[in-house]
Design a protein that fits this description.
This protein has 74 residues and is mainly alpha-helical. It contains two helices and no strands. The protein is elongated.
Amino acid sequence: MTLPILPIGRHMTDDEKRGFRMACACFATWGRQLQHSPSVVPVAGDDLTPTMRRAGELMQIGAQALDRTLGRHG
């Protein structure tokens, strides 16, 4: 199976942009769920939860940045 890659040397088609932006929205949603989960990893205790919340925040930031740069103008 060959994984799709972003087009190089050309702009994305409208369908490609839409799919890319949907993928970014999925990652942002996942990050938001991690960030606001009451107990992301209940077995590990409280010390891992802040790390996972930070990871969720970074996922959201990354997804939003990709959407703003490549998703809207790619």
